[in-house]
Amino acid sequence: MTTNILALCGGVGGAKLALGLSRLLKPAELLTVVNTGDDFRHLGLHISPDLDTVMYTLAGVADPERGWGLAGETWNFMRALSRLGGSDWFNLGDQDLATHIYRTQGLQQGLGLAAVTQSLCASLGIAQRLVPMSDDPVQTIVCTDQGDLPFQDYFVRLACRPRVRALRYAGADTARPHPDFAALLGNDAPHAVILCPSNPFLSIDPILSLPGVRAGLQSTRAPVIAVSPIVGGKALKGPAAKIMAELGLPATNLAIADYYRDLLNSLVIDDIDAHEAPAIEKLGIEVRVVNTVMRSLQDRVELARRCLEGTS
Ligand code: FO1
After folding, report:
1. Residue 196 Cα distances to 51, 75, 170, angstroms
2. Atom in ligand 1 nearest the alpha carbon of residue 12
3. Phi, psi (5° rounding) for residue 290?
4. What is the pLDDT of residues 204-262, one digit of tens each?
5. Which of 155, 195, 186, 148 is nearest to 169 (CA)?
6. 47 ligand 1 Cβ < 6 A
């Protein structure tokens, strides 16, 4: 199979670009690798939030306001659980529950996460190839002023309030990248690698921490193109800018470029940040100035088209 484009992505922002790419490329031409550092076990279920978000987005069933979960969701289960005094800080919608139960059952039967994801994608009518970064567990741990926190505790339960000091990805040193992903890091290089506009620390770094991934991307002959998640000094969604400040980095595209410097050929930044282009180019990174704020499907497709420019 010829994979022309390898996309690495996390949740909401990454999913939007993955959707744009999927409208321009044939299913066989695109491999989307999704972060699983956010995965956790909750109420006995295996939850894979970023896989869910990308799947639901590609299937056209994601909730457009929240970005995660299903459109038209109902919350009877959560209300009932709450009345019983059960754990109600992480919201599992009535329909969404089916995904988590199906996944958990598949894993219990000995299927890997990639196989269960493939089956879920087929049921949702998704033709694009979507794989978890690894079948092996990796857990993003946020080291904060309130101690080391599992990702969803930091992100949802504590609403990203604790100050971040560092991040680590437990299990990443031994987790094996999905074989289709690993193949593209060797001789079978794609025409381009796209780092979606996902949080570098929470979504892309867990993928880069897997054995051989960073080195593979450093030495690949494919151009590596990142879409910056920072627009006008802020993250469009999520805590990227807050975390950058807490880690002593300015919330600028230049800081993003510098952070990915060892990997990057091109950085895609928003029109509003055009003034940053010369400083980024001084790092030896090509800059593409475009609209990166994806409000409509047309915005997603157009951003994907600009990412693919020059790749064939
Ligand atoms: N995000 C929230 O902010 N609150 C929630 O209660 C929540 C529930 C949830 C359930 C299933 C799922 O697939 C995702 C869910 N998310 C929720 C999103 C998720 O925690 C984050 O957006 C990602 O982990 C960050 O990319």
Report:
1. 14, 31, 23
2. 26
3. -145, 180
4. 999 999 999 999 999 999 999 999 999 998 888 889 999 999 999 999 999 999 999 99
5. 148
6. yes
